[in-house]
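Table S7 (text form). Paired inputs.
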Amino acid sequence: MCTRCERLLSASSEASAASPWQPRRAFLLAAVGAALSGPAFAQVNVGNASVARNLVPADRIEAAGVQQYGQLLAQARAKGALAGDNNPQLQRLRTIAQRLIPFATPWNTRAREWKWEVNLLGSKQINAFCMPGGKIAFFTGILDQLKLSDDEVAMVMGHEMAHALREHARARMAKSAGTGAALSIGAQLLGLGQVGDLAARAGTQLITLKFSRSDETEADLVGLELAARAGYDPKASVSLWNKMATASKNQGGLSFLSTHPSGPDRIAKLEANLPKVEDLYRAASGVDV
């Protein structure tokens, strides 16, 4: 429970004998505290998820993600570029994912039903993503070229998972409908038409979808907290983006940075939020920060 909520409930308990309305008052105070803080357990402050996402049915966008993910794996398999289950790098990724996934559901209750999956694709691209529905993929380039530690891998994975948990792709698809919002709402309620088509078409766009600056900040911070709760050093978020910036300069731009812009402001925001999650990391890892 957040500190603010604890203070509210504590004050409420002390006054319980004086007011017959106390049970209702305590409930309202707790509800207000939860509403103000977003997920009740969250240490980072990212507010509530975009309401625009409600214009696109979640099951449609998740189905589109699963379909596109399956097609991508099939193409990689045909080229001999899909890592087998015994691949050490893939096993490493899956071990990290197993530690992160248990902390996903509080950020999105739908995640409880997702069939999480992690795969590794043989490619020199410095890239990784998580489709709606929990379908994660890493390219060997991001592991090999950046020489990522487990902590840094966790930051990448947490960031990508956060995009899915905060339903950024779903919101972007909804916003792309523009002035057709009213029609979209009607179609959603009827279960047919424009919204379903929009979500179905989204599959081919999900890998290269460009998120807004606010989406990226949310993903950074939610991913930071996910990784810290799983016992990964939050300071790795800073070293990761420093590596990204260096690689971008040396290689004249990265595919990952085309959809995940970097810069001093991004690193500064992460550094400012490290104190918020250090206790989580300490509790999970037993390491003194």
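Next pair, protein 2 of 2.
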Amino acid sequence: MKDNIISKIIFLLLFAVYMLIPILATYMFSIAVRWDRTILPEGYTLEWYLKTFQHPYFIIALKNSLLLASYTVMVNLILIIPAAYTAHTRLPWVKLQMDLLTILPFGIPRVVLALALIAVFNVPPIARSPFLLVSACSVFSMPYMYRPIANALEAMDLRTINDAARLQGANSRQILIYIIGPNILTGVVSGSLLVFSAIFAEYTLAVLITGARFKTLPMLLVEFTRRDGRIASAITVVAFTIAMLLSITIIFLARERQKAQKIKR
């Protein structure tokens, strides 16, 4: 028993080291004066961060990435929550089709998806617009949102909840917003974080659909990767830190809301 616990601890430590070393190395490289001739950096500086924030396209690219990820999350929530709720309550036979439909984006390469959308929606003002990019990102990220929400719905006794709510005079919209919504909050938060993280770092769809007309942070990162790896590391650190802080904030707010609901009950 003791040997089993020790082996689990060793495995967890090795996994933590495996995950943390690339992140720590990126952080160190972003503040290194030079780091290609010795084991440790030859000096430390914040010059690369200053150059990053002084770049004229950095704030624009950061804002575009945040907007793209946020709009994609909103589109997924608006489309998937009612669809998943309807499939699990009124049309149970549709659940299998929805499961298969949400798996399709994993099997379609993003290059193929982008080129297909460009060819089909080649009509101004939709052609190569941010609207088309948000649509493509919503299709691509759909499985990340659907699966956590579907799991949360399957963990509930929806039939009993629906019957009880309708006996109290609630309609479908009220049931979904005031009863089902708070109970699937964990799935909504999980799906939103997965979608936000995936789209915030999305490069292929953005560069093929909008290109330089709607420059995102990953596009700027690729440009600097070819020119100066230290500035590219600084951009990576900034993007990772922003995504991490937003994730922590969303999780904290969701937990506080759940605590407030428990107190009311």
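Residues 229-264 form the longest helix (36 residues).
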